[in-house]
Amino acid sequence: MVKIKKENSTLEGWLWEASCKIRGEMDAPKYKDYILPIIFIKRLSDVFDDELDKLAEEYGDRAIADQLVNDDHSLVRFYIPEAARWAEIAIKNTGLGEALTDAVRFIA
């Protein structure tokens, strides 16, 4: 029990240190404005991609599956517009705040 608690404490310390390095000079309260939408969009995109992969297996091609989903959003649990998908967000190196806001709006 003591060993597990110590390991959790060590892991927590490493994660905290890593997040501080990633955050850089940005204030911690402001950081959450970025990190929470990023986590949200990444998770939704992963689930959406999994569903597209299943459709691709069924129809034989990812492009066909993507086109079908674009035409009929009911084929998936929820539809993520292309501009709001993780692949699009991940390539942003400027204007991330605006891109995240737009992505969440597109999803909503």
UniProtKB/TrEMBL annotation:
Q: Name one GO molecular function term.
A: site-specific DNA-methyltransferase (adenine-specific) activity
The reaction(s) catalysed by this protein are: a 2'-deoxyadenosine in DNA + S-adenosyl-L-methionine = an N(6)-methyl-2'-deoxyadenosine in DNA + S-adenosyl-L-homocysteine + H(+)
Per its UniProt record, what SUPFAM superfamilies does this chain match?
Answer: S-adenosyl-L-methionine-dependent methyltransferases
List UniProt keywords, sorted A-Z.
Methyltransferase, Restriction system, S-adenosyl-L-methionine, Transferase
The residues covered by the N6 adenine-specific DNA methyltransferase N-terminal domain are 14-107
- Per the UniProt record, which EC number(s) apply here? 2.1.1.72
According to its UniProt entry, the protein's GO biological process terms are: DNA restriction-modification system; methylation
Would you tell me the protein name for this molecule?
site-specific DNA-methyltransferase (adenine-specific)
Tell me which species this is from.
Answer: Methanothrix harundinacea
From the broadest rank down, the organism's phylogenetic lineage runs: Archaea, Methanobacteriati, Methanobacteriota, Stenosarchaea group, Methanomicrobia
